[in-house]
What we know:
By secondary structure, this protein is of the alpha/beta class. It is built from twelve helices and 14 strands. Helix 7 packs across helix 10. Pathway: tRNA modification; 5-methoxycarbonylmethyl-2-thiouridine-tRNA biosynthesis. This is Cytoplasmic tRNA 2-thiolation protein 1.
Amino acid sequence: MEEAVTKPTKKGGGRLCCICNQRRAALKRPKTLEQICRECFYEVFEEEIHQVIVDNQLFKPGERIAIGASGGKDSTVLACVLAELNRRHNYGLDLFLLSVDEGITGYRDDSLETVKRNEVQYGLPLKIVSYKDLYGWTMDEIVKMIGLKNNCTFCGVFRRQALDRGASLLKVDKVATGHNADDIAETVLLNILRGDIARLSRCTSIVTGEDGPIPRCKPFKYTYEKEIMFTYAYFKRLDYFSTECIYSPNAYRGFAREFIKDLERIRPRAILDIIKSGEDFRISTSTKMPEQGTCERCGYISSQKWCKACVLLEGLNRGLPKMGIGRSSRGLNNDPKKDKDIKQSNGTKSIENKQCGSLDF
């Protein structure tokens, strides 16, 4: 006679955890639809991150790793989990927090206070670099000049380079960022919409910038935003800053984000499917790709004579903030010495809008 199969029973009106079958389930995982308790979720969540780190050989013993820390949910959870895994599994890493102060009053100044508390909570040294020190401009000053349109272009370019500058000051071997599965799916979609073949070919890589000054890695590549924010950070009562940037409501990425959220509501696995599609894209060998070089002005990596940051700064300093925005067959990157001959277009000077100096997204 076959033994009866024991099924999870309800206790106090709730379903029992499908893993331990002891405690009441507290959530349903979006990736697997499993109903599990808090304790089992913590264990499964952290073990999945550990497995991603091990399978992809993200770190080596003795390495110095900077965690890109904004004070938001993703970077805070990343700092918490990496500190715990480093201790539990004896990775042998020297961990640091690295923050960028863009100079956004009422947003970044508040979030940096959260990062400073995280420094104490996790016992990780903190380094802050600012746009003002690096470029002579704050985002408040840039927005005052250019307005709310295209301001995210400036911030994105400057922040990528600022992270590298800060990482160099810390003398780290790698930068770990909190980009999650939702972020990567959004980026795949954005690069398709933009027709950006160069970025599409690398945006799903878990390690980027290996040919640059300091590689970056994404331990949360397969981790859903819902599990990071609404589950792990919430249940653990982590100290994080949840306000969105005051200058980003009209950001192009926001439209892709809403589309991804709609897909997730219909079919949760859609996020991982999009990432898988991005991984499986193959670029034709006949496609001409940008060649990495060095910026003639600042020495940063660039596929043009001047890196994007230098082009944008030139426009700001000359009172022509839209100089680096838009597309044109002529411009500073054709011949920096002859930029006086650039034609006026809609009251501004335009150059080729080719992204360079980008190690991530």
